[in-house]
Amino acid sequence: MNKGLIFISDFFIDQAPGGAEIYDDILIRELEKEKIKVVKFTSNTITKRFLDFYLNYNFHILISNFANLKPELIKYIQVHRNRYSILEHDHKYDKNRNPAIYNRELLVPTKQIINKYFYQNAKNIFCQSIRHEEIINKNLSLSNTTNLGCSLWDKEQLDIIRHSLTNEKKNKNIIIKDLNPIKGYKQAVKYCKDKNIEYSILEKTNYKTFIKEISQSEKLIFFPLSPESFSRVVVEARMLNCSLATNNLNGCTYEEWFKKYKGIELVNFVDRSRVAVVKKIIDSIYNKKDINYYHDLTVILNCYRRPYNLKMQVEAIRQQSCPPQQIWLWINDHEDNHGFDFDSLDVDKIFLNNYNWKFYGRFAAALLADTEYVAVYDDDTIPGSDWHKNCFETMEREEGILGAAGMTFKSDIYINHDRCGWPTKNDKLTEVDAVGHAWFFKREWLSFLWKEKPFMWENGEDIQFSSMAKIYGGIKTFCPPHPQGDQSMHGSILGNELGIDSKATSNNNEVTHQQFFSERDLCVQNALKMGWVTVNEVT
């Protein structure tokens, strides 16, 4: 099968001939030698339409620098979990792209971390060195990183280096004039002046002249201010038998081969490494087992009086082993959520209402979903990491409305029911009459919820949905397995901690406890009159 690659970067070699662009250009040429079709897009010109076109032909997405990639495209790409990889050249998970400005440990403060899920959901994060990989994992705790172990030089560049190895050493010390602040030009000059060291300045020029000037120098003075993912110039100096005055921020110096090889031996090693690096990239993209692909699922969260739970909910849903395409947030108006910064949440769409639509509003929003499945969550419900997977696997065995907490009625009085799901830890799939806390269902089944006008708008959406689906569609309701020893499969893992407070609808001052349960009695009784056949066939 022909292999294809969508290669996205902020710039290419003809636009900005920097280190990353040189690397990318060599890589693209090597990939094309391996019969891989590469289509290039700058990050500010790629569109969803182009992505969809090439993804339809099973192209993989390889993303280099992406500072100019629109946030909505980042979110769109990140749901294609096994369809894209990131070729990391620096530290784009950090707002400042420089972990060294915070502390010696190179730990980026949580508030400065960006693009977290973009990195987590990628099939591969290709790192330039073992030190580069270590810093990224220290800050993001990833399991999808691959250390490529070397940068790329083409044969023409290496031939220039080989031919320069015999040059006479005319300069004692050399400093490269790079006005990018993180390259430490001023620091290198200060170092030499403070120690009364003679030095020459090397201006940026063509590669042949650049290499010649370095080859004629005894020592390279280089003090970068940001952790260099690799540092090509340091390796070039070592290939040219230069010594170094530098710091510990060069990724290449942490590789085992760096101290082992120098001069022509290092040139030959780097030449061999090009083939190994390209092969590692190809194998990781096309032969490595795919991580779980996103599913055709929209998640809808609900906010009323507990906005402080939202960040934890979003985090838990983003880290699902079967993540959704999108997360939507439905906000019912209440003074308890006024002033909350909803835009700070990693959600895709927000419904901000000036009215309290109570229980049914979020299910109305679900009608706008363009996915096969929808999952709806109460504001006190944090799912285990395999909850969606549990639901999808259950659907394969037995289709139905699924939920985290089930009720099986023993009479027409609501409170007279048996519980199921996370409150009781059922080991097996269990049919119930209604579910709550978290719902998982096919979008098309929403038509049953709205088949009849709800008996009351203030209560009973769970009873309405399951009863109408059973009456009009023959759709049953189930609690998937909630094994005692595996909370990852549970629909709610903090139900007791988050759900039992004064803000619970069943336990607050706005609706009395007696009124709440009396209303639910009426909802059950109305559904039974309409022909609802419950598990226990109550009347």
Structure characterization notes:
- The chain folds into 3 domains: 3-147, 3-Layer(aba) Sandwich (Rossmann fold), CATH 3.40.50; 155-273, Glycogen Phosphorylase B (Rossmann fold); 297-529, Spore Coat Polysaccharide Biosynthesis Protein SpsA, Chain A.
- Strand 15 (401-409) and strand 16 (417-421) form a beta hairpin.
- Strands 11, 12, 13, 14, 15, 16, 17, 18 and 19 form a 9-stranded mixed β-sheet that branches. The protein has a 6-stranded parallel β-sheet with strand order 2-1-3-4-5-6, sandwiched between helices.
- The chain is built from 18 helices and 19 strands.
- With 539 residues, the chain is of the alpha/beta class.
Write the layout of secondary structure elements.
Blueprint: E1 3-9, H1 19-33, E2 36-42, H2 48-55, E3 60-63, H3 71-78, E4 84-87, H4 116-120, E5 124-127, H5 130-140, E6 145-147, H6 155-164, E7 171-176, H7 185-194, E8 200-202, H8 207-215, E9 217-221, H9 232-239, E10 243-245, H10 256-260, H11 264-287, E11 297-303, H12 310-318, E12 326-331, E13 349-352, H13 361-365, E14 373-377, H14 387-397, E15 401-409, E16 417-421, E17 430-432, E18 434-442, H15 446-449, H16 461-473, E19 477-479, H17 495-499, H18 513-529
Parallel strand pairs: 1-2, 1-3, 3-4, 4-5, 5-6, 7-8, 7-9, 9-10, 11-12, 11-14, 12-13, 15-19
Antiparallel strand pairs: 14-18, 15-16, 15-18, 17-19
Helix pairs in contact: 6-8, 6-11, 16-18
